[in-house]
Amino acid sequence: MIKKIISIFFVAMILFSLSACGSKEAKLKDGYYTAHIDGFEVGHGWQEYVTIGVSNGKIITVEYNAINKAGFKKSWDMAYMRNMNQSQGTYPNNYTRRYAAQLLEKQSSAAIDTVSGATNSGKNFKLLVEAALEKAKIGDCSVAIVSHES
User: How far apart are CA 79 and CA 145, in angstroms?
Assistant: First the structure.
């Protein structure tokens, strides 16, 4: 009788573990995950990046920005902000926060709406988030590098 109970227990455990492997959505591992574009943007000299923080399997923090070779953040560049806002109706400190807020709310890059005037940055944001999320699924905190051509 005990052998039968043990056998049933092991079969149940195997079936349970197989059903977990077939789950469509992998749980994110706690930690901080970063992805950045490979190289600096030609002409403007910025390199976009995203860092996400995960706790209890959910995204709890998002930083999206770009830096130049000196490490200066794009969202801090007042001249860039004024020029872009005048021509595009948005600027880095605005659209980076809007993209980050959408990711926090939706927990996925798939449903993120593009911000008018920041379409290319929106595409890059989604690519960067996907790369960071792939790292978060396996708990790999090394920096993911995303090609411009991705």
Answer: 28
Residue 22 amino acid letter: G
Instruction: Tell me the C-alpha to C-alpha distance, in Å, between residue 104 and each of 80, 111, 150.
Output: 26, 11, 23
Instruction: Give the integer Cα–Cα distance in Å for 12 and 109.
Output: 36
Q: Give this prediction's pTM.
A: 0.78
Q: Which one-letter amino acid corresponds to residue 45?
A: G
Using DSSP, state whether 59 is helix, strand or coil: strand
Q: Who has greater pLDDT, 135 or 20?
A: 135
Nearest to 63 by CA among 77, 48, 78, 76: 48
Q: Hey, which residues does 73 pair with through a beta bridge?
A: 67
The residue whose two tokens read 């699924």 is 137
C-alpha to C-alpha distance for 92 and 98, rounded to whole angstroms: 10
For 68-79, write each residue's pLDDT tens digit. 999 989 988 898
